[in-house]
Sequence to fold (182 residues):
Amino acid sequence: MSGFGWDDDMQKVTADEDVWDDLVKRRPEFKKWRTKSFPSFNRMDALNSKSTATGAFARDGGAAGEDGEEEGDDEDEDGDGDGDDDENDTTPAARKRSRPSAVTAMADIASALRAMGSQDEGLGEALAELLERDSEHFEEDELASLGLALADKPRLASVYHSFAEKPELRHSFLRKVLASER
Fold:
């Protein structure tokens, strides 16, 4: 929809009266935005202007019941569910996204932690070693849980490193970590 602008001094959306009238006629719930100012807009814009969503850490929002609750309607506070102003548009069918495997996710976490440098107490290396040495001994969900446990408690990474040359002890340690996380 065109004809809208921004007034930096008044911190609000601007438009000619006929543009507002047309919008409010089609979408009555937008009436309140006609006179509403947004004093935090510039601060929020500064916080978010350099951010770009890449989807690298996306989670499947469509998976209902993961924590026992189903999601409700996605409608915003102002009643606008999709932000689209055209009444005749239809919502396209939701396409099914494949979820990255736990191994891929852990590899991404390990790479990111390695890039953080020495602050991670060897966490990135521990996760990389876990994938390299022990991935065939654990299911994907177990590897993901182990990765989260090591990230949550970096000292566990040091213990894991100390068992590097003792596979039986290392596997026993990892099983105990898994048991403590359940």
About this structure: The longest strand covers residues 4-7. Residues 65-77 have pLDDT under 50 and may be disordered. The beta strands are 4-7, 12-15.
